[in-house]
Backbone:
């Protein structure tokens, strides 16, 4: 089978597996608590582990790319996620459950960082459509796991439900193992992510506005979206809606991420500047939140306006595929894409992982959702800055080349 087809299978399977173990636990969390004895503190820690794990692995994976091939990293990522999922499901106490949860997130975090440069490596001429498929599958898996979690738990218990997601990581493991073996057998180091390219040694995203712009995109996006995935049902029920309605509205919010994930990468390919696209997402976030707070119980005939408000800020999730697409759109090389992906996601998720915690604390302290959403509006300032820094069509490596020229002139 051609290497390109194997890589495509690996990309598709990996993309679908990257969120299943994240969103597949919360629907059966009450059943987990009965056996694993998770208290309020450990439950809060469990909620922070995805973004924390993504952040910790971001910078480490970028550094590992200089010594290890992308294929090897993805093989390890799938193995960690699969093993962690099975071991977590078998855990009978708090510490192992949390420890293996972190192991899963480390595996998934490696996949987060490595997939954009692997797309650039094997499908340089088809980056936009493949990024669209990749980001769409992330959204699909985020919505699919909660949908099937409870039926699986009813049929065979929560351990089967929580552990079943390992099968997708194992499926993704196979093509990446084949690719890794092929690269090693051929001795094609130049075909791996660690090409002996002088650009690779000097690509330092933290010295570029593009690097910090991507960080701010992930900070603003993760703070807003993870806060909504965590707290939107609570916000909705506080305005008199039932838990069933709140669940449907959360699922609707998640589904809205699918169409924008398909459209945004294709738009980025066609646009000379992405500033307008990014600022549109910022405006949708801000206006949707404001409308929900001002008119939560408004109705138009038999239609609850809450569905409209969720539609508005749900479409603002376009900021996430925008950030993913810009990893490749603002770099020239696989090494540059890897460095930018690791730095942007690593630092961005680290700063954004506290978003849901701060959102909840502000409501507890202030007793009003206005204070909580005030924090999200503040994060929209960070998102706006990221949009402006990355909007112009320029490349990370060009800054590095300029730095080298200046250094040579000084010598």
Residues:
């Amino acid at each position: 089978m051609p290497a390109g087809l194997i890589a495509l299978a690996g990309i598709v399977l990996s993309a679908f597996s990257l969120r299943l173990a994240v969103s597949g636990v919360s629907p059966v969390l009450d059943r987990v608590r009965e056996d694993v004895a998770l208290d309020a503190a450990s439950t809060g820690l469990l909620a922070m582990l995805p973004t924390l794990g993504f952040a910790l692995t971001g910078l480490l994976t970028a550094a590992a790319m200089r010594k290890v091939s992308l294929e090897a990293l993805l093989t390890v990522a799938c193995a960690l996620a699969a093993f962690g999922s099975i071991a977590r499901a078998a855990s009978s106490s708090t510490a192992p459950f949390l420890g293996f949860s972190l192991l899963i997130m480390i595996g998934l975090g490696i996949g987060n960082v490595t997939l954009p440069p692997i797309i650039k490596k094997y499908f340089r001429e088809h980056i936009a459509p493949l990024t669209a498929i990749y980001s769409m599958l992330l959204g699909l898996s985020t919505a699919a796991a909660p949908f099937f979690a409870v039926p699986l738990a009813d049929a065979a218990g929560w351990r089967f439900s929580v552990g079943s997601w390992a099968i997708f990581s194992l499926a993704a493991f196979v093509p990446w193992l084949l690719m890794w073996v092929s690269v090693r057998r051929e001795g094609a180091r130049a075909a791996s992510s660690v090409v002996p390219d002088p650009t690779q040694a000097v690509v330092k995203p933290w010295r570029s506005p593009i690097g910090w712009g991507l960080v701010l995109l992930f900070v603003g996006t993760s703070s807003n979206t993870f806060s909504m995935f965590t707290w939107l049902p609570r916000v909705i029920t506080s305005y008199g809606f039932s838990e069933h309605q709140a669940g449907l509205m959360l699922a609707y919010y998640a589904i809205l991420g699918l169409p924008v994930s398909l459209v945004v990468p294709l738009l980025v390919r066609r646009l000379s500047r992405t500033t307008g696209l990014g600022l549109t997402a910022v405006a949708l976030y801000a206006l949707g939140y404001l409308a929900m707070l001002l008119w939560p119980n408004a109705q138009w005939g038999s239609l609850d306006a809450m569905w409209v408000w969720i539609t508005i800020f749900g479409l603002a999730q376009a900021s996430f595929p925008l950030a993913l697409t810009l990893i490749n759109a603002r770099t020239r090389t696989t090494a540059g894409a890897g460095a930018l992906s690791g730095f942007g996601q690593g630092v961005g998720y680290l700063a954004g992982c506290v978003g849901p915690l701060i959102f909840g604390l502000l409501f507890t302290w202030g007793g009003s959702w206005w204070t909580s959403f005030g924090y999200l509006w503040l994060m929209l300032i960070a998102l706006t800055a990221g949009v402006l820094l990355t909007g112009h069509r320029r490349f990370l490596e060009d800054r590095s080349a300029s730095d080298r020229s200046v250094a040579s002139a000084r010598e």
Remarks:
- Residues 127-156 form the longest helix (30 residues).
